[in-house]
Amino acid sequence: MRLFLADEIWKNKRGFPFKKPVTYLPAGYHTGQDFLTDSVGKVPVVAPCDGILTIYQLSRSAGWWGTYSFEYAGNKYSLKILHMYKEMKGGKYKEGNILGYCGATGLSITQKYGEAYIGESEEEQNSDKAVPHLHVELHKGEYKHDTNKKRGLCDLRIIDPVSIFEKWLNKKQAENNKMIFYKESGKSSVYLKGNDNVYYPIISGKHFISLFGNWKENTIKEIDNINPKSESYFGLFKANNEGDYDVV
Ligand SMILES: [Zn+2]
């Protein structure tokens, strides 16, 4: 599982937020999250995990759009992506594959321009009235589009994509960061406790970061003393049973 947009856009380029779940889509409610993308045809939307993209006809409001269906933690979800630059290609995708590029098709303008539809041509998408952005909706279960009513049967299953994705990814982050580092009181060395209950010495600073990523993201426990170690290797370091270690 990953974000479907680059971190920088995810954090800094949010437009209209998700308002609240509704039975249908009465005018005035915003049922997704907008991300401002500044340019057309350049910002990729990637598959958050393995799944299937279903595409639809060009819509005067949604522009080029599609729904990406996937399963996560035993549940089915559909991620609806709107205002894409060009028609996408339906079918199976793997996590990280590019589904398409953000554009300004359909109703992709700010309210100050009133109710108007633009963005079908490349010229319109690049005009000063266009506000290139990605509108994302997350639906629990299979999203079904009713072409006769021209509205999605979203029901109460529509949920906030931002909070849900952040919850999923933070959980994954926590699972990836199970390493606990130990610091012996009064000593500068830091140790990682291996699965075999042996404490492996770690050097802090640059080398540490290159081996383990961000220091601050991991837990460091201070303890009174560390059990004697058997001779063991860990990365660049070799420990002996006196507790000393050498760079090897
Ligand atoms: Zn929107």
What is the string of SSEs from the N terminus onward?
HEEEEEEEHEEEEHEEEHEEEE
What name does CATH use for the topology of the largest domain? Glucose Permease (Domain IIA)
**CATH superfamily label of the largest domain:** Glucose Permease (Domain IIA)
**Poorly predicted runs:** 21-27, 232-236
Mean pLDDT: 78
- Counting helices, strands and paired strands, the structural category is alpha+beta
CATH uppermost class of the largest domain: Mainly Beta
Q: What is the count of helical runs?
A: 4
User: How much beta, percentage-wise?
Assistant: 25-35%
* Largest beta-sheet characterization: 7 strands, antiparallel
**CATH architectural designation of the largest domain:** Distorted Sandwich
Total domain modules = 2
Lay out the secondary structure:
Layout: H1 7-12, E1 33-36, E2 44-46, E3 51-55, E4 64-72, E5 75-84, E6 91-93, E7 98-101, H2 122-125, E8 133-140, E9 145-146, E10 151-152, E11 158-159, H3 161-176, E12 180-184, E13 190-193, E14 199-202, H4 206-212, E15 219-223, E16 232-234, E17 237-239, E18 245-247
Parallel strand pairs: 12-15
Antiparallel strand pairs: 1-8, 2-7, 3-4, 3-6, 4-5, 5-8, 8-11, 9-10, 12-13, 13-14, 16-17, 17-18
Bound molecules: zinc ion (ZN).
Zinc ion binds at residues 16, 30, 32, 34, 135.
